């Protein structure tokens, strides 16, 4: 998630770090719901949810689901251009570095999926990142066209299948046996947690395939934006950000409302697949609006405060991402409190907010003393095939991310 290397004189881009730190909130909210609830993990409605929990689930579905992984993927593509430029400036081998980095992400993602959360994204990044490596010299306009075709075709096909599904007037039964099995496993012992994760791994890999078009399209958009240095100081103007925000909200909000209504009600279950299709088609618009609003705030009188709030967490994005899974799994499973299925969606949302606030505070404290987070340091070691600078050295110019 963070840059694996670069020349000592190339500073980080605050906007990239701040956007990544902000995106961690959405990732945490979505992942926490799935880690804590067997119904969310199975993708079905909880028939016994209290009204406040139903509202919380609806809001998370509308505002966060399918939005923030696209933003993270965009930033991954953008960061790749900086990493490639860094490697070329200091005489490094771009291909060798990125292959080592991709392998590290795949292995780290596999461990993450088996021991913690099966909805891992690192394996996807490690594998699909190889496409970025092959396409790194394409023109920005070509990258944008490729992203539009990849995501557009995927969204249209998914929406078409959803439209056909609305003609089937049947409700999917709640998979009670699978839910009961998951509850028993995650509340059992550390061994049953790992076995359940292993059993879910094939389905998780299928989920990776379903996410792949969106991730790859966002990679290409990030690649184009990175080649044009749109997130560098002065890279874009306020009027463009305002226009993108307006269009993104106009397209994204109705799509998000329909998506949540089909997934969580009041529409019945036969609309769910169509809702997913419409939600996927319109999610990039809302993701773009989120990003542009934050960029506008960074360019406002409150910009320094917002940067200080989010950027440290973004610098430690990989450590924080893994830390989120660790904390929530300790709360949910037999690793710790065994609260799986016992906390309503509203309570999970409050818990996620508390975890995020803690991560913001810890990230700020950590980056005042250390240059890299633990996971970032490990990734740099593997990427550079050698030990980077000592973590506890005084603050110095940072490589771009």
From TrEMBL:
Keyword DNA-binding applies: no
Heparan-alpha-glucosaminide N-acetyltransferase catalytic domain span: 12-160
UniProt keyword annotation of Transmembrane present: yes
Keyword field: Membrane, Transmembrane, Transmembrane helix
InterPro entries: Bact_Transport_Assoc, DUF418, HGSNAT_cat
Residue ranges constituting the DUF418 domain according to the UniProt record: 225-384
Pfam families to which the protein is assigned, alphabetical: DUF418, HGSNAT_cat
Segments traversing the membrane: 18-36, 56-78, 98-115, 121-139, 146-168, 203-225, 246-267, 273-298, 318-337, 343-362
Stated name of the protein: DUF418 domain-containing protein
Organism, as annotated: Streptomyces lomondensis
Taxonomy of the source species: Bacteria, Bacillati, Actinomycetota, Actinomycetes, Kitasatosporales
């Amino acid at each position: 998630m963070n840059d694996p290397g670069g020349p000592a004189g190339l500073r980080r881009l605050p906007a990239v770090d701040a956007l990544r730190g902000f995106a961690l909130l959405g990732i945490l909210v979505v992942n926490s719901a799935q880690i804590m609830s067997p119904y969310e993990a199975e993708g079905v409605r909880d028939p016994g949810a209290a009204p406040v929990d139903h509202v919380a689930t609806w809001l998370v579905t509308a505002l966060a689901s399918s939005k923030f992984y696209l933003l993270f993927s965009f930033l991954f593509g953008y960061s790749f251009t900086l990493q490639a430029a860094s490697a070329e400036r200091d005489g490094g081998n771009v291909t060798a570095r990125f292959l080592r980095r991709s392998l590290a992400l795949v292995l780290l993602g596999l461990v993450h999926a088996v021991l913690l959360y099966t909805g891992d994204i690192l394996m996807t990044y490690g594998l699909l990142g190889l496409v970025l490596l092959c396409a790194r010299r394409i023109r920005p306009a070509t990258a944008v066209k490729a992203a539009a075709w990849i995501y557009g075709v995927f969204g249209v096909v998914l929406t078409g299948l959803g439209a056909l599904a609305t003609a089937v007037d049947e409700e999917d039964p709640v998979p009670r046996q699978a839910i009961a099995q998951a509850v028993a496993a995650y509340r059992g012992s550390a061994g049953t947690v790992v076995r359940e994760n292993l059993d879910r791994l094939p389905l998780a890999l299928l989920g990776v395939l379903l996410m792949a078009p969106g991730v790859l399209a966002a990679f290409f958009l990030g690649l184009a934006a990175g080649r044009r240095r749109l997130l560098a100081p002065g890279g874009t103007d306020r009027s463009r950000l305002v226009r993108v925000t307006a269009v993104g909200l106009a397209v994204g909000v109705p799509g998000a409302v329909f998506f949540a209504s089909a997934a969580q009600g009041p529409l019945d279950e036969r609309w769910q697949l169509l809702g997913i299709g419409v939600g996927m088609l319109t999610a990039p618009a809302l993701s773009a609006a989120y990003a542009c609003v934050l960029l506008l705030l960074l360019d406002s009188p409150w910009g320094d405060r917002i940067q200080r709030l989010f950027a440290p967490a973004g610098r430690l994005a990989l450590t924080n991402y893994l830390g989120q899974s660790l904390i929530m799994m300790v709360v949910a499973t037999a690793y710790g409190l065994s609260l799986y299925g016992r906390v309503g969606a509203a309570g999970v949302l409050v818990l996620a907010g508390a975890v995020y606030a803690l991560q913001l505070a810890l990230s700020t404290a950590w980056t005042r003393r250390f240059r890299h987070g633990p996971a970032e340091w490990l990734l740099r070691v593997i990427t550079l095939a050698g030990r980077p600078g000592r973590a506890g050295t005084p603050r110095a110019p940072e490589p771009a991310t």
